[in-house]
Amino acid sequence: MKARQKRFWFILSAILVLCIAAAFVLNAFQSNLVFFFTPSQVFKGEAPKNRLFRIGGMVKEGTLKRGNDEIEFVVTDFSNDVVVHYSGLLPDLFKEGKGVVAQGRLNNENVMSATEVLAKHDENYMPPEAKAAIDKAAVERASKTLKANP
What we know:
The protein is an alpha+beta fold. The chain has 2 domains: about 35 residues; about 110 residues, CATH 2.40.50.140. The protein contains 3 helices and 7 strands; from the N terminus they run H-E-H-E-E-E-E-E-E-H. The protein has a 5-stranded mixed β-barrel with strand order 2-4-5-7-6.
């Protein structure tokens, strides 16, 4: 085999190894990617069924129910609501009327089974996506009210 052929096969094998490594990295990235959705997006069917994602909004007043091992509450963006079931300890800052981000899977009845619940750590902080969704829902609610009551 000539030196030129050896160099060609070396470069070709190096490119092949890089492509395989890139495929593994992209696959791992895709497996760990978790998207954020609002209750309105879940209501519209934009959220994936039986796939891990996050939902953010406010914990609706009067919806917190504690069972033996199960906790149920409703996450709202003041336009639509999503029921969340969670088994575990809630964060200390978790309260009704406060912001929350829950991570889990949505079943066929649009009920989320959460594996993780995060409460906002400061009364002025809210995830940007949740803030935008709540602001958008408030604008939509105001425009509907104006149309209904001219």
